[in-house]
């Protein structure tokens, strides 16, 4: 990424290469530095995720979740439309955070959202509550070498 670290009078960039990175930094600056994060989760975890969403709405939080609860079956008539809308939201985010629980492995939507995020070049982080990972995690978490962090450490991981 660009940026001048020296004290020369010209300032500016050492190199211009990362246009996507520059665009993302500009969007973050316009949002007041908050990270736009796509939150992926199993519909069975909605109550827990609502607590996380509420915490992120705190004015002192640096995280803004960009997500929608999908209650439609993965193979429903509206699934293609839902995938299109979700892909747009994932593309707007800087990172995809997957809330992992004992329910995650059963969600086709979560697997699709993670696969789409990786295809779009997004960073993916698996987040869990408390101090211990759930005992049954989807295999794709280890296969894709997705970093796992506790909710309390998420903000540090995003910056």
CATH topology: Rossmann fold
Strand adjacency order, main sheet? 2-1-3-4-5
The percentage helix is 25-40%
Ends apart, CA distance between termini: 15 Å
Low-confidence stretches: 1-14
CATH architecture: 3-Layer(aba) Sandwich
Instruction: State the order of secondary-structure elements, H for helix, E for strand.
Output: HEHEHEHEHEH
Number of domains: 1
Question: How much strand?
Answer: 15-25%
Average predicted local confidence, pLDDT: 78
State the CATH class: Alpha Beta
CA gyration radius, whole angstroms: 17 Å
Brief overview, please?
37% of the residues lie in helices and 15% in strands. With 159 residues, it is an alpha/beta fold. It starts with 18 loop residues before the first helix and ends with a helix.
How would you characterize this protein structure?
- With 159 residues, the chain is α/β, with parallel strands linked by helices.
- The chain is built from six helices and five strands, in the order αβαβαβαβαβα.
- The chain has helices at 19-30, 46-56, 79-92, 108-119, 139-143, 154-158, and strands spanning 35-40, 63-65, 95-99, 123-128, 147-150.
- Mean pLDDT is 78; it is low at 1-14.
Give a topology summary.
Layout: H1 19-30, E1 35-40, H2 46-56, E2 63-65, H3 79-92, E3 95-99, H4 108-119, E4 123-128, H5 139-143, E5 147-150, H6 154-158
Parallel strand pairs: 1-2, 1-3, 3-4, 4-5
Features:
about 160 residues; alpha/beta; Rossmann fold; 5-stranded parallel sheet; 5 strands; about 35% helix
